[in-house]
Amino acid sequence: MIGVIFLILFFFGINQLIFGAYSKQYNFIDKNKLNLLYLYHSVFYGVYLWYAYNNPSDSKRYYKDVDHYSGDWLPIFGTGTEFMNFLTYPFTRLGFSYEMTMFAFSWFGFLGFFYAYLFFREKIPIRIVVFKKIDLFTLILFFPNMHFWTASLGKGSVIFLGLMMFTYAIVKPGPRWFLLGLGSIIIYLVRPHVFMFVAVGTVLGYMSGREKISFRRKFLIYAVLITGLILAKDQILAVVGLQGSDDLVGDFGEFSEKRTDDLSSAGSGVNMASYPLPLKLFTFWFRPLFIDAPNFLGIITSFENLIYLLLFFKILKKDFIRFLRKSPSLVKMSFVIFLSTSFAMTFVMSNLGIIMRQKSMVMYYIFFVIYYYLAEKKYYKILLRRKKIKARSERLNKKVDVATAQ
């Protein structure tokens, strides 16, 4: 416990250095809110630690496998679980206990929230209030389920950091090339198939965005991501055991059917094989929803899923398609990443526990789309109001001039 307290204070100090460095670049950095976010995230570390003590958890396996490993570090390098073992190795050799290692990875998850904070605030400076008096950005930052699955030794914390680091860096890929490369590598090494969705979403977003982007910038992004996809093709297909397949569509269908059967046999399984696509997507995005909550955690998640659903209703408007068609590349990129990942996951996810964990990777992308949509509508209302005030002022000035002339 003393070691964990030391790490909490140590990373708190590191956070202040990071906040200070970015404050020189941005005037919107709110250190008080970020420190509160760090404290909030640390509370969920404690919640997850309690959960891991009382339930099966991959975090115990990662730590145990590496702690008992007596070989060298580099030979265990790889993708997926191998990469998690590779990351865990240095902490065990430094003498970190299981609890300390958990907190170190929890801090990785917090850094993901920090880069999400930068991305949202940099691109959307307008404050949006939902449900009459709740600040939307604060609500997004403090969703419990997002913190729970990113506050432990596991793929969730690491890939969330990679995704948010990549998303923040892609705004200005030139100056932020290091973060862009590091984020891409992290995503690929943790979950190669997610890297594919991110790459495809980024390319499509930049191809169809409304803003003018230099050929050099587009070429750099396309070249890096397409080359990465080509090089990573076998590892991506290996995730579902399809490397060397001659019939990818048919073999993927068999894999997804078997995966669905395996997961639906678990305690919190749902038989999604016969669901139509809209219901599959609804299940992935918004379930459990009270009546099918598998446990107490599921009940808490149901409240959050209800908020997701209410936020989703805000874009079910006639003008949303028009907004999406004319939106900037980052909005389209976020929407494609969210939709393509969700679409793929619905074919292999049939366990509510796994769904709750997996969707935390991509929900911030749809939150960004919703936030941008609402901010743009508010911005146009402000412009219209200013235009009316200006017109009214001009009419009043004309009347005064006429009266003066008479």
Q: Return Rg in Å.
A: 23 Å
Averaging pLDDT over every residue, what do you get?
81
In helices, the fraction of residues equals over 70%
Order of helices and strands: HHHHHEEHHHHHHHHHHHHH
Structural notes for this entry:
The structure is a single chain. By secondary structure, this protein is mainly alpha-helical. The chain folds into 2 domains: 1-190, no CATH class; 216-371, no CATH class. It has helices spanning 2-23, 31-54, 58-67, 81-93, 98-123, 136-141, 144-148, 155-170, 177-190, 192-208, 215-238, 248-264, 277-286, 296-313, 318-326, 329-345, 352-358, 363-405; strands at residues 129-130, 134-135. The protein has a two-stranded antiparallel ribbon. α10 (192-208) packs antiparallel against α16 and α16 runs antiparallel to α18. The longest helix is centred in the last third of the chain and has 43 residues, at 363-405.
